[in-house]
Every structure is written in C-alpha cells, then in structure tokens.
Structure prediction request, 379 residues.
Amino acid sequence: MSKKDYYDVLGVDQSASESDIKKAFRRLAMKCHPDRNPDDKAAEEKFKEINEAYEILADEKKRAAYDQYGHAGVDPNMGGGGFSSHSNFSDIFGDVFGDIFGGSGGSSRQRSSRVQRGADLKYTLDLDLEDAAHGTDVKIRVPKSKRCDDCDGSGAKKGSKPVDCSMCGGAGQVRMQQGFFAIQQTCPRCHGQGKTVKDPCTTCRGEGRVKEQKNLSVKIPPGVDNDDNIRLSGEGDAGLHGGPAGDLYIQIRVNEHKIFTRSGTNLYCDVPISFVDAALGGELEVPTLDGRVKLKIPAETQTDKQFRIRHKGVRSIRDGSIGDLICKVIIETPVKLDKHQKDLLKQFQDALEKNTNKHAPKTNGWFDGVKKFFEDMKF
Prediction:
C-alpha cells in the first residue's frame, strides 16, 4: 500500500511554516493518542502515521529531501532518513509536549543545573513606637546556613568530587515511556542534581552547607510600620553547589504604646480633662514623641472633640512627609465626692435647670426628641 502524503496526513499545505506544522501535529496527536482511544487500532495506526509525518516535516533536511524526492527521499532502505525508532519519537514528543507534561524538552536540551540559589529567610523584629518613628540601629542574631568551608560547598570529602548520577547519567531527569507516551521527570536518585556524592564531607555530611548563628547590624530607617520589610541581600541561606545565597527579610512589628495609637503617619491619643476645664476653657500640656507641647482648650468644649497638632506625628518612610498628632478630649466625671462637694454640685445643677435651653441645648433637645417619639408611638 502506498503511503499518504505527509502534508495531507497533518492537514497542512506544502508551504506551511515550522510553527504551523508543530501546531497541526500537536492537535492531531492529542486527538489520536492511544491513552485517549484505548483498544482503538485505527486511532493507534493514525497516531503512528502522524508521528512519522511530523518526524520528517519537522526536520529541515528531511523535509527538503521529501519535497524533492517524495517518500523515496526519506526511505532508510534507499539511503534516506526515515522514522526509525521509538526513541526518535520520544525526542519529538518531548519537544512538542514538554511544556504540557512538565518536561524540559528533547534530549538535546540543556538539563537542570546543580547550582541552586539559597532560600530566603524571614526575621520578625519587635520595635517600640519611638524607635520605629525615629529610626535606630539594632543587632540581631539569625540562624542560617553557610557554605561548608571544608568541602567548599561541594558536599564531597576533600580529595574527591561528586560524580554523575548512575540513574540519569548526569542529566538530572529520567524519561518514562509507556508505548508511545513519554514524559520526563526529576531523577529520584539525585533529585535533579545530576550528581551524587559517594564519599561525603564529614563536616556537612554531604549537604555542602552547615548551620550557623550570624550576628548582623540592621539600620532601621525612620517611619517604619507594622509589616514593613527590610531586605538584606545575600544574608539568607547559602546556595547549593556554588549558587548565590538567598536574602534575609526583616519584618517589622511595632509594639503597642501606652499613650499613642498610630494610623499611617498620624498619631492619636486621648486627653482626659475635667468638666470645669471643658466648661471654662484652659491650657494643658500633652506629650508628643519629641517632648511636651501646650494644648489650648476653648470654653464649652464637648467630650470627643478632636484637636490637631501639626507635624507631631511620624515621618513617612516613602516621601518624608510628617503626619499630625490628633488629641481627643475625654471629659472625666469626678469620683469619690464628699458631702460638701456633692452639695455644691447639687446647687450648681439647680442653677442650670432654671434655663436648660441656654446651658444644656443638647440635653434639652434630646429630651424633646424622646418626648415626641413616645407621643408618636402612643405608648
């Protein structure tokens, strides 16, 4: 039986580009794959046919011979190339479908390198608000791994060196094939390194790295806040087989303050005042991160009134602007009064009740609203 034209098998024109041929093969191979068509002899034969066509048309020299001489130009019995073995197909299949199945491509592609970057590390640093706002220098002690000096990071004992893995031959990957279906996976013996250590270093036990406690000095810039990160390049775990070290990330955690609450670059604090100062007005000292400042309380100040003191907050770590201090006054009710004090307050209350609208407009308005509510509900 004469063979079909390879271009017709893939459903492409003779002028089709390499990309068009690959796309056509991908589509047909996935459709006719034996795993998708179990016990279907016709699909299996079609699968072999499209692979044979792709093996010829995907190769520039074989395609040129086929275009000039037809099947005779690629027939191995007549000196041509031909589709000779399953191993050839394995390379083709790996090239086209490697990205789907996680392989690294055909046999000619570069295998994974033994060199690996070290892991990044995280260190949580607790700071007081004052240190976070003004900046400071701190010393920390970080557990990490460093390159083993005895084996220079190779993991092999002095006088020896790692050898190619006997399972993957140094490739770092092995190919598993079932019929026409082939995938690549990381070598289980060397874990993708391509090398194994027969005589491990006694210091690091073949790891190439050893643990240490490293002392570091960290400069904290002014204005850092919760969850800000400071990166120390190269201060993470050592890399494997000569790879670069990872980074160390210092994560900031600011402790709660007894007086201030922070939101962005602004600071907030509650300031208790007597009802006399609230009624008559006055002046008092309030704390800031830079010392004391005077706050003027106007007469007839109500509780929860907020006063803004400019530029007494925290400097922004991003643009250098400085936030404000916002003071909220809380009117404190006197406690543990003696009889004389209570009598004075009672006289004061009697005096206020002679003209409630004038002295307590909010109270009077609230009671008027309650009265109207009860009337409307007809309680």
Notes: The chain is about 30% helix and 25% strand. Residues 14 and 140 are 69 Å apart (CA to CA).
